[in-house]
Amino acid sequence: MTLKGAKDFELHRCAVSGDANDPLIQRDYAAPERASRTAFQRDRERIVQSRAFRRLAGKTQVFTSRASDHFRSRLTHTIEVAQIARSVAQELGLNEDLAEALALAHDIGHPPFGHAGEHALDECLKRHGRRFDHNLHALRIVEHFELRYAAHRGLNLTLGVREGIIKHSRDYSAEQYPELAGYLLDRRPPLEAQIIDLADEIAYLTADLDDGVESGLLEIEHIREHVDLLAQSYAQVEREHPGVEAKFLFSEALQRMQNILTDDLMATTLANALAIGASSLDEVRTHPVRLASFSPHVESMRQQEKRYLYETLYTCHALSLEHEKAEQVVTALFNFWIAEPLELPSGYVEQIETEGLARVVADYIAGMTDSFILLQYAQVKRAVRR
User: 7-385 is classed in which CATH architecture?
Assistant: First the structure.
């Protein structure tokens, strides 16, 4: 199916309205609204102005910032996701402000050192009967840890943004997560939230090839041999620009690959909505499965590239060494503060009675940037030697 214009189908009827009667714009605490900005625009600004958002600049995406200033950080990745999400929402006639706010918040719950840090923190918590989930940690950040207002803790975001933070990439059952009962767990998320996880995929599938080649760990010719989506885009660019240096052809091929993925997401999501005759947000939310998706053909190419990245980049020797170091640092600090809880900052010590020591230690570590956690690790090592 081609994307002939979502407005012809009036997919905007399936969008979150954000008007004064929309329950998704409700906040836990009363807040004066401004006629010049929508509720979701205000949420976007609250997220961007938060400490957790700023700390993304110091958190690993794939390569640590110590390796090169040119590699994506968690922050620059987030900005790329926001650009894609907003363009998809605009083309489909969805609520662009909600989509952008969700994209900007989608990674704020990640700990330092990327997925290696998250895995280590989860393993530490398992020993104490807990788990680490970056979506749920993001919710704790916006509801509890951010301190910007005199009357309450948290950012006081709308229900729509808080629900999307939790549900953009997976569904949670009320039986397993009774604490999330207020987040409409029996309903699919709105389309604005459904597109975020796929926009995230589009962003990193493109960026990780780019950073992989920049790092010297991947070679353009090898990618062309094993990633059909990139190979097709590269061949097209090469025909149009014969004799141009490979690195420039590769850069433009990545842009075209991103466009293919983005266009397919828009066309397939629209086709899925057409197939069920969706004409309201309620029909989207009560449908048994999510409507946002890639077509079967593009999905197979996406899976091929993900396997390639996992086998050749994410698990390569150089990054495996970084991952091992990251897990060592996280685990050592977690064990230290479990044994010496009074060494935690006073604000965290005060929360031990209500949250439990293991959760408090995990919360402290999860908020750190790569550079700060390495500083803490060095200080703890010196203290232990004494």
Answer: Orthogonal Bundle (1.10)
Residue range 338-364, pLDDT digits in tens: 999 999 999 999 999 999 999 999 999
How many other C-beta atoms can be found within 10 angstroms of the C-beta atom of residue 246?
15
Pick from 10-24, 110-124, 285-299: least confident? 10-24
**Measured between alpha carbons, how far is 307 from 327 in angstroms, rounded to an integer?**
23
- For 82, other C-beta atoms within 10 Å of its C-beta total 23
The residues pairing with 73 across neighbouring beta strands, listed in sequence order, are: 60
Digit-coded pLDDT (tens) for 96-135: 999 999 999 999 999 999 899 999 999 999 999 999 999 9
Taking the C-alpha atoms of residue 352 and residue 288, their distance in angstroms, rounded to an integer, is: 40
Q: Write phi, then psi, for 61 (nearest 5 degrees).
A: -95, -70
The CA distances from residue 126 to 48, 110, 129, 133, in Å, are 32, 17, 5, 12
Which residues face 298 on adjacent strands? none
Residue in this structure with the two tokens 């600049």, named with its chain if needed: 57
How many of the other CB atoms lie within 10 Å of CB of 70?
11
How far apart, in whole angstroms, are the C-alpha atoms of residue 350 and residue 157? 25
Q: Which helix (H) or strand (E) holds 266?
A: helix 246-275
**Which residues, including other chains, have CB under 8 Å from residue 347's CB and lie 6 or more apart?**
none
Domain boundaries, the chain: 7-385
